[in-house]
Every structure is written in C-alpha cells, then in structure tokens.
C-alpha cells in the first residue's frame, strides 16, 4: 500500500526523458546549460586537495553560517544568529521537507498557492496532514479573499513562493500587508517562505520575508545556492528561522542527511567573497529580454516575467489541446521540451499555458525559437 498513491513520476522527469529520447532542445527542467563561473571551479579544485572530506557540523560549516548571516544583513538588513538561526541543507527541497516534517502535525491543514512546486503537497501528505490548495488569480497574484476563506483553527502553515515558480511573478508590498493582516488573526500559523530565486528579479526588486520584521518569529525562509550560483547539481541551500523553530527543524534534518557535503560548503564559503549577488538579476534579465525578443514572432502570448528564469506563455488562442498533450507535441513534432502548468495545480487544472526555462546559452535559445516559429 502506497503512502503517496496519487504521486507518480514528476513532470520534470517526464519531459526531460522525452527531450533526451527525441533529441529535443530542453527548455523544460530549470537548470542552466552554460558554464559555471571559472572562479568557483578553481576554488573547488583547491579544496579537493585539502583534508576536508569528513563530516562537518550538523548545522553547517561555521564560517559559511557567518557568511550567510552577513549576506542576509547586507541584502535585507536583518540580523540573524549564525549559530542558532541558520541551517545548511542538501538543497532547498530537503530544507522544505525538514521544515514541514518538523512543524506540521497529523490532521493539520497547510495552505498552498497554485500553481505550486510539487514537493510541497507530498511532504504535507507524509505528515498525515491536509494540503489546502488555493489557485492564484489569473494574473498569478495571491487571491487574499480566497485564502482568508480557507483559514481556520486547523491551519498550521501557509507556504509561499516568491519569486514564483512557474510564473515568474513577484509579490508587492501590498501582498505582504495582506498576509500580515491575515496572520494576525491566526497567531499559531507558521509561514514557510520559499525564496530560492530571491536574487533573480528584474525591474522590481524582490521583497523578502527578512524585510518583514513582524513575521520573523513565525517564519522559515528557504534559500538556494544552487539557483543563485547556477550550481543546481550541488544540491546546497539553507534555511533561516528563529531558534525556537530551528531547534525542531534540526531534529529532523540530522536524521535525513546529518550534514551537507563538505567540499561544497568550503567552496561556497570562499565564492561568496568573490561573487556579487546583486548582479545576478541583471545577468538573467539579459537572458529574459533576449528570449522574449526571439519569441515575439511566434504565436505564443508571453506573460510578464518579473523574476526567476522561467517564462510562461499561453497557447489557448491557437490550440484547444490540453497542456500536457500540447507540451508532448512540441517535443515530438517541433523538437522543443517545455513544462505544462497543469501538474502545478490541484486536479490538473488546465489554463492552456506552458513554461520555458531561459537559463540557457544564446545558441540554445536561438535554435529553440527557430523551431517554435514553425508552429
């Protein structure tokens, strides 16, 4: 008997497998295909020659915890205690799993805003808790009236994702004000703030939970070095939470991975000193603008992209196919792999949209656009 009877192979795995099978250009799974910074490679080479190959402390390499505290202070003016309020995780997904497992109990309710990352629901179900999935508005902003209507005494947590995958939407100041007003009514609700694309925003800067002092005592933030530094395969991220919450999260974390890869932690610790995270948004904004310019002559209607390295496009005005069939057709007939949005919705809601990943080199984006022009 399965603990997750309705969970099957993820859409990311399915589309990447199809891309390989049909030798399609893969704009589906969210990973860059351009080289990692040579400075980071050189740092890794140096550390592989040192005797640093054994376990690090469970919470993380102490100098790296200090660097994260400084990064948080510099980026958001929030002072955190590196020894009690930061945890290095084996990627953001593991951090999300540990936080939900530690803080959510059987029969609790957890609010998720759809379209949503697929790991949220499965982790909640493994707690014998109930995911409450609420669709965002048509422009992918939060529907605060709908959220308020589903909050009750059983609500234990609300999961937010900002900047948002898959839509590229970022929250406004007004969204945070609405969230704070709502949480005032439910003092026991915890906020899990997934901010893995925090340094990849464009015209409007990302507003972080770290800038909302009123919510610090009840929030867990999720960050990703993999996303920020284009090293998704390293699977390294971190959580920030108050000591009271972090004590419980660490209890779960220690039995999942105990400690995270030592070479990765040493390397990231050095790399933070030579990289400017403030410039990451500009780098990806050039990618976004280039891809959007290439797509102007295609049939697709592009939604605004305010952050992340994803571009959502609508095709409903020229095809009635469901989004999964349409995405598969793009692979088999046109040689481009994308991600349909329906797997991000409860019940597979089909909004006739697909997601492109533009974290690719220019040659890849050009070739993909040339194929999409044939539709």
Automatic annotation (TrEMBL):
Cofactor(s) this protein cannot do without: pyridoxal 5'-phosphate
Pfam families the record matches: Aminotran_1_2 (PF00155)
Domain Aminotransferase class I/classII large: 25-372
Molecular function terms, GO-annotated: kynurenine-oxoglutarate transaminase activity; pyridoxal phosphate binding
Gene3D superfamilies: Aspartate Aminotransferase, domain 1, Type I PLP-dependent aspartate aminotransferase-like (Major domain)
Record's GO cellular component terms: cytoplasm
UniProtKB keywords: Aminotransferase, Pyridoxal phosphate, Transferase
InterPro entries hit by this protein: Aminotransferase_I/II_large (IPR004839), Kynurenine-oxoglutarate_AT (IPR051326), PyrdxlP-dep_Trfase (IPR015424), PyrdxlP-dep_Trfase_major (IPR015421), PyrdxlP-dep_Trfase_small (IPR015422)
Record flagged with keyword Chloroplast: no
Family assignment from sequence similarity: Belongs to the class-I pyridoxal-phosphate-dependent aminotransferase family.
Protein name per its UniProtKB record: Aminotransferase class I/II-fold pyridoxal phosphate-dependent enzyme
Species of provenance: Flavobacterium luteum
